[in-house]
Amino acid sequence: MDDLLNVSNISISFTQYVQGLNQHVLKVISDLSLSVKEGEVVAILGSSGSGKSLLAHAILGILPENGNCEGDIVFKGEVLSQERKEQLRGKEICLIPQSVNFLDPLMKVGEQAIGDVPKEEREEAFKKQRDVFSKYGLSEEVDDLYPFELSGGMARKVLLSTALLSNPELVVADEPTPGLDSQSVKETIKDIKQMAQDGKGVLLITHEIDVALKTADRIAIFYSGYVIEINKTENFNDVNNLLHPYTKSLIEALPRNGFKLTEGVQPLDDVDGCPYFENCPIRDDFCKNNIPSLIEHDGVMIRCHKYNGEVE
Amino acid sequence: MNNRTKTFIRNKAIHFILLMLAVAIFSFVLLELSPIDPVNAYLKQAVISPEQRIMLEQYWGVNQPLTTKIWGWLSNLLQGNLGTSLIYRVPVVDVIVERFMASFVLMFFSWIISGFLGFGLGIVAGKNKGGWIDKLVKLYCYILQSAPSFWIGLLILIIFSVELGWFPIGMSVAIGTVSSDATIWQWLARLVLPTLTLSLVGVAPIAMYTRNELVNVLSSDYILFARARGESGWPLIERQALRNILLPALTLQFQNFAELFGGAVLVEQVFSYPGIGQTAVAAGLQSDVTLLLGIVLVSAVFVFVGNLLADVMYFFVDPRIRENEYLDKN
Known about the structure:
The structure holds 2 protein chains of 2 kinds. By secondary structure, chain A is of the alpha/beta class. Chain A is about 25% helix and about 25% strand. Chain A contains 9 helices and 12 strands.
């Protein structure tokens, strides 16, 4: 099956002014590649504040003005230009945002959900909106509520159904679970899986390992601006099936896997060599000055010089 | 009417009474401490005998203790008696009503024009943040904000009255005509330049504020999400941003009543426009204590009403507050 979305070697940086007119380029994403097929959920798992959301913004073409994005984003075999992104967003590609802050505080949610439609199409748009809202268990009163009147669970459903109104082929869910009670998290996971069963491709951006494990078919590990490993979710059940030392330590740190803590933090600045060099238990001198590239092996992607084609 | 509204009205009423009491007492004490001698002001250098002078002082209670004076002033005030103007020799209330109407027309038009113009310019500048039009609007606002309004008034007078000769230089009616004989057109012609001056000056704060609000709103999460759903350009601003900045902008414009009043005082003086501002200057220069106190009170009421309207806007228009009220009821 062809990839619905293929992101290859994306880098995103911001131009900032520091001390007057001195420009400073801040690199947030250095090298990010992944793909999403139809009917597949791919999670990109990385720590909070590491810039994962920017990937979503880059796909939708809503990066801030001082943000530069290099690399190709291919949707259904077509490299997306900014114009094309503007045409597709809200139609074939949709975003599920994080929180109720993404709704206009002074507009009723029903009105917001239908978007900017011509007068004669409004009635039809409202009908469609009602259908989708009911599908997610939102009663008719909800249409006339303002965002501040929604409970956490309702807000989540509103955001979800608002994103799904146009029946998109690709859904980008940007941290849809933080701050939700466990019941809502369960429902979110169920809803996302349902989307994939309906044939949509879902890119799930999250920092919650459990959500990624329960939802995704494949998980991409994002570390310090790089995707260092993309593996099938079932391989995460056994540390020995994982390839990258960081992924291993991440999974070993889970309570059920022995709470094994690895010291060290992710480097904030650009490094010359492997981003994991500082903390890597199997590093050697070569790793220090050479950035490893992402290589494919048997449907699994890995970025490590020490990997020699076999699972250790 | 629910509890919230009742509390709101009660608090505002208490606020108003305290404010007026404080303004009445403090302005009276300040005038008492000033070198103004009401007897001299009344006499205007007419020569009288010391006995006559003492009689006058007794008649006006000049030598009574301060507390008695204040008490007298307050009790008269409560009965609606503001005294008689020394300059005009008519009750202060009559002078104020007449002059305030003239000023009110001036301030009303300036308020409307500067509001619309400022809001519009702010939107255009904010939408094109960083562009040449934004820089132009900012430049205009900085210049206008830092220039004194009487100086702008003088410039406008020089350009439109002296150089171009389009409008009369001053006075509400031509010299030699009684003001009641002036036609509405003559009167309007004299309204144009002061209104223009006040409007131009009033544009600056509202335009800058609207611009910044719009820039903030445009970088908010909900605009990001709206864009992610395919909304863009002017419809996006109209649908999602406008109502979020309209309320704060309107509030600011109501709060600007104080500045409007201050501006009117100077501008009326420059254009010899017979409004409350010019009267205030005349009262101050000619030591007309009663008239001055009356004008101070009226301007306090005026500014209070502006702030009150701003509060009312927030209280009754913003759904986040309005709906809370609804929740209270149930």
